[in-house]
Amino acid sequence: MELMIESMMMAERREFLNVSEGNKGNGFRRARSYGQGRVLEFRVPRDWYGNFHPTILALQRDQEEECELLASSLYCKGLTQSQVGEVFGEVYGKQYSKASISRMIGYLREDVRQWLSRSLEAYYPIVFVDAIHVKVHRKRSVESEAFYVVMGVKEDKSREVPGIFNRPSESATGWKEMFMALRQRGVENIGLLVADGIRYLEDSLAEIFPGTPLQKCVTYLKRNMLARVRHGDKGALAEDLREVFRTGDPHYTPEQGWEAWQALCGKWGEDYRSIKRLGDDPFYRYYFTYLNYHPRVQSMIYTTNWIERLQRDFRRVLRMRGAMPTEESVIVLMAKTAMDKKSYFRALPGIERDKVLFPDDSGNFLDLLNN
Questions:
Q1: Whether the Cβ atoms of residue 96 and residue 79 lie closer than 8 Å to each other
Q2: Element (H or E) spanning 149, and its range?
Q3: Stretch (H or E) spanning 312
Q4: 364 vs 371: CA distance, rounded Å
Q5: How far apart are alpha carbons 64 and 236 in whole angstroms?
Q6: Band of the pLDDT at 169, cuts 50, 70, 90?
Q7: Contact (CB, 8 A) for 100 and 38
Q8: Same-domain check for residues 208 and 224
Q9: Domain enclosing residue 27, as ranges
Q10: 234-249 pLDDT, tens per residue?
Q11: Are residues 176 and 278 in the same domain?
Q12: 139 and 99 share one domain
């Protein structure tokens, strides 16, 4: 293969020099390309003026890029590197080594690295955060590690994933570092942060993005509450919870919601002591922040459903592999999955109705919140 390509380039240079007046050959330069499951090394003929560029070499590069794209796509669909090599063997008639496939996927790693370090919007009307736990090899042992995920709604009503971060465990310090990383990449203000039942998240948020309202996931709370009662009581409790956390009612205020919550805890606390004490815990006020916003958008912002759907896509890709070899491999797969979410490019219908989150002049949104 190498000899054939060199011969073709020599023949091409002869034809090129025949029509290039005053030009002549000027030795060779070394080059590498890809073919037949291995790296090819050959001498590329040069001309005196530096104008000669072999067509066959360009075709070879196109083939290499095609292989890289295909390998990256298969890898991100859930196949291991060994399985990708087997597919290439069936398609191209030759078994590709794990090292060859790893080299192809290097293209994907660089693409992800640039994407994760890109500059971010100055203002995100809504940001959802959550963490997914994945088993990772480290120091000859396998343990579950936390991967922090941020999903944001932009001013144009589309969505994106501003960042994915790895820490061995989920902690207040980890969330603080995540917020600091977002600020360093250009985020100045967040209209509303939506999260699950993470404790102490509010402290990290207040330190890095002071004044940002926090909405805790109501769906998460409902699951937690239903787990506290007997099976026969679940239906009645679920109905009471739906009444407390109702949406779309312009006359239902956060204070009314809090009073309804206290009444629910008092009612069910007569039989379940673990529920009774929740009524006086100020932490649960964060579950009623959504009532400060337009009734038509409340159902969009009072749960973490959107980011949980993204987490399901992550798990679908990751679960086929068991334990991941490194934290980098996890982030590459998760980032590529997020990058390929075509639905995120579409504008969310109706969400701009809330003029606190989507003011006409985004620079004044903090004034709107204070009023």
A1: no
A2: strand 141-153
A3: helix 305-318
A4: 11
A5: 62
A6: confident
A7: yes
A8: yes
A9: 2-115
A10: 999 999 999 999 999 9
A11: yes
A12: no
